[in-house]
């Protein structure tokens, strides 16, 4: 499967501008099976106010339109406000046929004020697409290995993020740690640029099950990054080096 990361420079609270920029990037890197956008890609990491319902609606429709036009899936999170007033940092996985899967971020970033407006999601989401099973996680979730622990249910983790430069080394280490401990691919899409609180330098990456980097965005700029992931080689490695057989067994219950 061919995966392209869209390491965008997000314009603060400007969905239309971000949609135009993302579309331009997709068109510049045709032929992928899956395009991955950062966390809250249409607005930036909003924690100072409630998100607008219409921003979520228009950006989700854009994802559906682009998935159909490009004949590829799109994945990324949006700031969502439901009709009942509850807000979520919701990741969407949109397939070309219009099928949409969602994941509400479980670990809210209290240090950055995310818990002031957003509700916690308590359900893991695994999406099946073109023979691969993808576990969806969002930014701060990456720090908590129990939540993303392999349960015989996925082949790759997709982590969309707004991970700042000040903690860049942690991003680098945790992407590889999650790949190694779960013997899976890890697909991490981060942003570049600035918002009112942080500076971001990207380093989006795709890591294989051995912890090896397939592609990484080392330039501090908006760019596309593409790599192939292979199901047969993943399963062969799991079968040959059976680390997962020896992992500790326990039941994961949402809290």
The unreliable regions are none
Helix content: 10-25%
Tally of alpha and pi helices: 4
Query: Into which percentage range does the β-strand content fall?
Result: 25-35%
Secondary structure class reads alpha/beta
How is the main sheet built?
6 strands, mixed
Termini separation comes to 34 Å
The overall pLDDT, averaged over residues, is 95
What is the global morphology? Answer: globular
Q: For the largest sheet, list the strands in their spatial order.
A: 5-4-3-2-1-14
Order of helices and strands: EHEHEEEEEEHEEEEEEH
**In total, how many beta strands?**
14
**Rg calc:** 17 Å
At a glance:
This protein is of the alpha/beta class and 255 residues long. It is built from four helices and 14 strands.
Overview of the molecule:
The structure is a single chain. The protein is an alpha/beta fold. The protein has helices spanning 15-28, 53-70, 168-182, 231-240; strands at 2-7, 34-36, 73-81, 87-94, 100-104, 126-129, 132-138, 156-160, 185-189, 192-194, 199-201, 205-207, 213-216, 223-228. The strands form 3 sheets. A 6-stranded mixed beta sheet has the order 5-4-3-2-1-14. The chain starts with a strand and ends in a 15-residue tail after the last helix. The mean pLDDT is 95.
Question: What features would you highlight for this structure?
Answer:
255 residues; 6-stranded mixed beta sheet; single chain; alpha/beta; 14 strands; globular
Topology diagram in text:
Elements (H helix, E strand, L loop, with lengths): L1 E6 L7 H14 L5 E3 L16 H18 L2 E9 L5 E8 L5 E5 L21 E4 L2 E7 L17 E5 L7 H15 L2 E5 L2 E3 L4 E3 L3 E3 L5 E4 L6 E6 L2 H10 L15
Helix pairs in contact: 1-2
């Amino acid at each position: 499967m061919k995966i392209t990361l869209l390491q965008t420079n997000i314009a603060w609270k400007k969905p239309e501008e971000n949609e135009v920029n993302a579309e331009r990037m997709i068109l510049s890197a045709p032929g992928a099976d899956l395009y991955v956008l950062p966390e809250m890609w249409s607005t930036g990491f909003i924690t100072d106010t409630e998100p607008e319902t219409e921003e979520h609606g228009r950006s989700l429709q854009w994802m559906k339109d682009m998935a159909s036009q490009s004949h590829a899936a799109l994945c990324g999170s949006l700031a969502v406000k439901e009709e009942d007033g509850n807000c979520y940092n919701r990741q969407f996985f949109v397939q070309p046929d219009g099928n949409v899967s969602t994941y509400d971020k479980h670990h809210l970033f209290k240090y950055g004020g995310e818990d002031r407006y957003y509700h916690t999601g308590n359900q893991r989401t695994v999406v099946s697409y073109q023979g691969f099973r993808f576990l969806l996680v969002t930014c701060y979730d990456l720090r908590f290995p129990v939540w993303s622990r392999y349960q015989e249910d996925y082949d790759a983790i997709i982590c969309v993020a707004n991970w700042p430069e000040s903690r860049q080394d942690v991003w680098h280490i945790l992407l590889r740690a999650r790949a190694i401990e779960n013997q899976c691919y890890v697909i991490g899409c981060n942003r570049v640029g600035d918002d009112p609180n942080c500076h971001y330098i990207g380093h989006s990456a795709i890591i294989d099950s051995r912890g090896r980097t397939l592609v990484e965005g080392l330039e501090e700029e908006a760019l596309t990054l593409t790599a192939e992931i292979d199901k047969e080689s993943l399963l062969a490695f799991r079968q040959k080096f059976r680390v997962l057989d020896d992992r500790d067994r326990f039941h994961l219950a949402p809290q």
